[in-house]
Amino acid sequence: MSPIKWENSQYSEKHRRFLAKKPQDTKFFTLCDGAVRSGKTLSIIYKIPQIFHYIGNNYLKVFSGFSKNTVRNNVLIELIPYLENYHSAKCSYNSASGELDIKLWGKVYNCLVTGGGKADSDAKIQGGTWDFWYANELAKHNYAFYNMALSRLTPENARAYADCNPESTNHWLYKERIKPYLEGDENVRAIFDYWHFTMEDNANLSPVFIENQKRLYKGAFENRKIKGLWVAADGLVYDTFNTDKHTVSRDVILEKIRKNDFKDYFLGLDWGWNHPLCCGLYGLSGDGTYYKISEFYGQKKTCKDVADWILGQQKKYGKFFRFVNADNARPEQNYELEKRLGSIRVYSDKPQVLDSIEILRSVINYDRLIVNKDDCLQTLNEFQTYSYPEDGDSSDPDIPLKVNDDAMDETRYAITFYESRFLHKIKDYAKAAG
Ligand SMILES: Nc1ncnc2c1ncn2[C@@H]1O[C@H](COP(=O)(O)OP(=O)(O)OP(=O)(O)O)[C@@H](O)[C@H]1O
Ligand SMILES: [Mg+2]
């Protein structure tokens, strides 16, 4: 992806107002939140030369994100070409140390890029004075890092800017800043400025693009990602899974296998003993739709039971199975399984819960997961029950309840792994690309 051409940029009235605000007239801390793709990050990037010019170069400037890599992918990828091509700056970035030096309008600004998402992230930023902090995706930062960062910003003209997508109403950022701001709390308003953007505020997006984004985030996260609202996730995790639309009979599946409609076969596995184990077999059709062909589910199943079931399925359908992606909690079992399976690779790539739920949700929203309703009864049962805790019942309201989750975890391991590692290998996935 090449960097954007700023000479073609379009600005809505709200972005114009945001951009027109002089750094000297802004509060100590400016937060931009709202919908995905609403232009928050790029509008902050656009203002950076002006902000740096105002603040000067006496102290360190910090760019943080969930990790150093997310800052690079979300921010530096546009910031550096923008500074170099439009402001004749010279930038040098050391990705190992995170040191970023920007020579702009005759001054050198020493910056540091750092990750703020881990529990111990604050330890890396102890000591030192900063006069500028840009937190990309602030809501994904660790709370201790956020507090440590604020305490570094002591010079009088220091400024903090942040962007984020809304999360739960239980989030510290909402409770400490946004809610009091919205309620008119004067202490908060004295130092904190809050801007809220929607996709319609980003004049650079086409209506088709906006429509596609809206489809990606139907249901539980529509309020946050599309409407940009801080709300608790509630109800079903996969609330757009529709048993009429997203299931077919065994006969339909068998017919597809017979007609070679599936271009690839693979499996997911969530180990269990007292807690049930679940293994699922999937086929991917030429148009990028996943079909869950069968499931193996139950308590006290051994590695041999799983291997026998998989080999039995392979014999029954006579197809090459590309891989099993299993839960990584049982390395010795995965090792034994791989030995028993012979040519089928066993991976143990356990995806991050929130990200992978989001991936699976978007697969469902695009009608790209179809379940065999005669042979995957547990999967169907869980799609209709797997849910978020009631508001206030849990320390992390975005993590679903660990009930009715065995087939759900297995489905997530299988599909998100295929999406990220193999889908691009299948040529005709026009539907997947929207
Ligand atoms: N000034 C601009 N000029 C040209 N294109 C822009 C501009 N601002 C935004 N865009 C377009 O809109 C897209 C989204 O902008 P941006 O990444 O700033 O949104 P965001 O609100 O930070 O989104 P997210 O919440 O997903 O991080 C950009 O990838 C770019 O294509
Ligand atoms: Mg952004």
Account of the 3D structure:
The protein is of the alpha/beta class and 434 residues long. The chain contains 14 helices and 15 strands. The chain folds into 2 domains: 6-218, Rossmann fold (3-Layer(aba) Sandwich), CATH 3.40.50.300; 247-425, Nucleotidyltransferase, domain 5. It has an 8-stranded mixed sheet, sandwiched between helices. A hairpin with a 4-residue loop joins strand 11 (277-285) and strand 12. The relative contact order is 0.11. The model is unreliable at 429-434 (pLDDT under 50). It binds adenosine-5'-triphosphate and magnesium ion. Magnesium ion (MG) is lined by residues 40-41, 74, 163.
Quick rundown:
This protein has 434 residues and is of the alpha/beta class.
| CATH homologous superfamily title of the largest domain | P-loop containing nucleotide triphosphate hydrolases
Distance linking N and C termini = 18 Å
- Low-confidence residue ranges: 429-434
**CATH topology label of the largest domain:** Rossmann fold
Give, in spatial order, the strands making up the sheet with the most strands: 3-4-5-2-6-7-1-8
Summarize the helices and strands and which ones pair or pack.
Blueprint: H1 13-20, E1 29-34, H2 40-55, E2 60-65, H3 68-87, E3 90-94, E4 99-104, E5 107-115, E6 130-135, H4 143-152, E7 159-164, H5 172-182, H6 186-191, E8 192-197, H7 207-216, H8 222-226, E9 247-248, H9 250-258, E10 262-270, E11 277-285, E12 290-298, H10 303-317, E13 323-326, H11 331-341, E14 345-347, H12 353-365, E15 369-372, H13 377-383, H14 406-421
Parallel strand pairs: 1-7, 1-8, 2-5, 2-6, 6-7, 9-15, 10-13, 12-15, 13-14
Antiparallel strand pairs: 3-4, 4-5, 10-11, 11-12
Helix pairs in contact: 2-3, 10-11, 12-14, 13-14
